[in-house]
Amino acid sequence: MASDNEHQLLINQLQQDNQLAFTQLYDLYSHRLYRNILRMVKDDNIAQELLQDLFLKIWEKRHSINPESSFKSYLYKIAENLVYGHFRGMAKDKRLIERLILSSTAFDTYAEEAIITKENQDLLKEAIESLPPQRKQVYTLCKLEGKSYEEVSLEMGIATSTIRNQIVQANKSLRDYLKSNDDLLIALIVAGLFRHIN
């Protein structure tokens, strides 16, 4: 992996239309990006196509890349959007949605980690508001405010086992609520899985 200075130089050269710098950045990042995309889409040809689309977008947007921001995070956000677009195009297949839900290992992180539209944020808030009062409070404290089970146990005066059970039930309720909105569900699943495998 290139040093920070070398990496910064490559970004600067890329913004000056240097194709060699583009190739070097591709070599630095493409293998891991490909592996992560493949884990999501489960198809080599689709993964290769999405990877090529990703770097095409990097080339097209090279002049607008912020050199002060994390280039790796920028790459993974584009990859996440491309995978989301791929699954969104297949969303008419309800069996695909079910497979995505079943294959997800990070549903309880979706709410605080997903980057979604305001409309979908509002729907997610509605889903949380639909929870019973204690469950909503536990979920908000643990998942949205990032408090530990022990901290919430002391704050609410209930056992950690109760908190754990409430989180499990909240995740199930949110999953069921969000099934009615395929776009949001796919966005949350893709976001959660990308953060899980990066």
Structure explained in plain terms:
The structure is a single chain. The protein is mainly α and 198 residues long. It folds into two domains: 4-89, RNA polymerase sigma factor, region 2, helix turn helix motif (Rna Polymerase Sigma Factor, Chain: A), CATH 1.10.1740.10; 96-197, Winged helix-like DNA-binding domain superfamily/Winged helix DNA-binding domain (Arc Repressor Mutant, subunit A, Orthogonal Bundle). Helix content is 77%, strand content 0%. It is built from eleven helices and no strands. It is elongated.
Task: Offer a few descriptive terms.
single chain; 198 residues; mainly alpha; 2 domains; elongated; disordered C terminus
Mean pLDDT: 77
Task: Determine and state the CATH class of the largest domain.
Answer: Mainly Alpha
Main β-sheet description: none
Strand content: under 5%
Low-confidence stretches: 101-117, 193-198
Chain oligomer state: single chain
CATH topology of the largest domain: Arc Repressor Mutant, subunit A
Radius of gyration: 20 Å
CATH superfamily of the largest domain: Winged helix-like DNA-binding domain superfamily/Winged helix DNA-binding domain
Query: Could you tell me the number of beta strands?
Result: 0
Q: So, CATH architecture of the largest domain?
A: Orthogonal Bundle
Q: End-to-end distance, in Å?
A: 16 Å
Q: Which class of secondary structure composition applies to the elements?
A: mainly alpha
Domain RNA polymerase sigma-70 region: 25-88
GO molecular function, one term: DNA binding
GO biological process, one term: DNA-templated transcription initiation
Keywords: Sigma factor, Transcription, Transcription regulation
